[in-house]
Amino acid sequence: MESTTQSPASPAREQPEENHAQPSAPSGRDFHALPIRGGTSRFRIALIIALVVVVVAGIFISRYVTSYEDTDDAQIDGHLNSVSARISGHVSKLNVEDNQYVQAGQVLVEIDPADYQAAYDKAKADFENAEAAAAAAGVTVPITSVNTTSQLSSAEAEVAGARAGVAAAKQQYEAAKAQLAQAEANNVKAQNDLVRYKQLVDKNEISQQQYDEAVAAATADAAAVSAARATSDALHEQVSQMQDRLLSTQADYRNAQTAPRQMQVIHSRAASALAEAQLKKAELDQAALNLQYTKVVAPVAGVVSNRTVEVGQNVSPGQELMKVIPLNDVWITANYKETQLRHMKVGQPVTIDVDANGRSYKGKVDSIAGASGARFSLLPPENATGNYVKVVQRIPVKIVLDPGENKDQSLRPGMSVEPKVWIRE
Fold first, then answer.
1. Which residues, including other chains, have CB under 8 Å from residue 349's CB and lie 6 or more apart?
2. Distance of alpha carbon 215 from its chain centroid, rounded?
3. At what angle do helices 114-202 and 208-256 cross, to 10 degrees?
4. Distance between CA atoms of residues 386 and 374, nearest Å
5. What is the CATH number of the domain that holds 101?
6. What is the rounded average pLDDT of the residues 365-385?
7. Number of structural domains, the chain?
8. Does 52 or 359 have the greater pLDDT score?
9. Of all residues in the chain, what percent carry a pLDDT higher than 70?
10. Which of 53, 120, 205, 383: CA 20 to 30 A from 298?
11. 140 & 264 share domain
12. Shared domain check, 130 and 183
């Protein structure tokens, strides 16, 4: 029999039992009940508060968003005052540069005044001459009244002399006619002799010298006819002239018999001379204006832009030389959609954000355009073709700045801005 023995080197290890006192744990239901109930209550309260905050914030945000209408299709506008020449001429001096600030009335361009100075001097001399003529015409009135009697006697004598001249001219004309008839008869005889001499010379019955003498005689007689005819025509014309002179002197005589009417004419001439003096005065004033227009001045205070004129250039009336932009008179043109104009009215406050300087300006709605921007285009859309597609139109709205908002005049026409029209207070 084997006896089981335990070696002393490996004695049996005995672990003493340690009894530690541990508190009794509660049941699972009791362990989790209190913490879970407290967390849920706080979560619900926080959730309710968050919901209230979101609702209130949403109301405020919705009210804020719907309290204004904004657009990014807006820009600064202003008056672009065109500076043009009122006369033609040669530019002799240029006093400004681009982007220079000028005052109203400041001389911008000078045109060579030499021609206009000469025209002014001539107009002044013409006016003085016309003024003197008007004064002389006024003095002539009483002198003419005294001379009418002597004019009548002189007219009677001129009529008598003209009649005598007509009679003498007729006698001379009759004598010239007789001489013409005689010359024509001599010419007929000479021409007939020439024909006969031609036949004889062809037969060698006479010498060539005799024939040449006949030719010379025929030629001389023909010239004598021409001379006599010219003399007759001249005397006939003289008769006509003397008759015309007689008619003229008779008319002068009748005119002299109408002294009262002549006095009226003299008075009219005096009035005409006075009117001529006034006309020359108007021409003098125009010449003075043209001389003044040789200096082109700024119509308003502002900044010079788009200068196209140079020294030495020839300009003509109406030619644009530059533009002057008054920066103290600018406004905003905002193109709002037609759906944004439902609650927009004149006078509503506006906040304008400017892209160029990042500043905000205050203003108000000044007016709303009478038509959409498309109606002002070069080719307005035609919707009567049957292919109509509804497109939201944009209406220009003019916005003016409040006084003092643009003191530094930093706003320039053409700048992009974003206006907000507050349609609700």
1. 362, 363, 364, 421, 422
2. 82
3. 140
4. 19
5. 2.40.50.100
6. 80
7. 3
8. 359
9. 83
10. 120
11. yes
12. yes
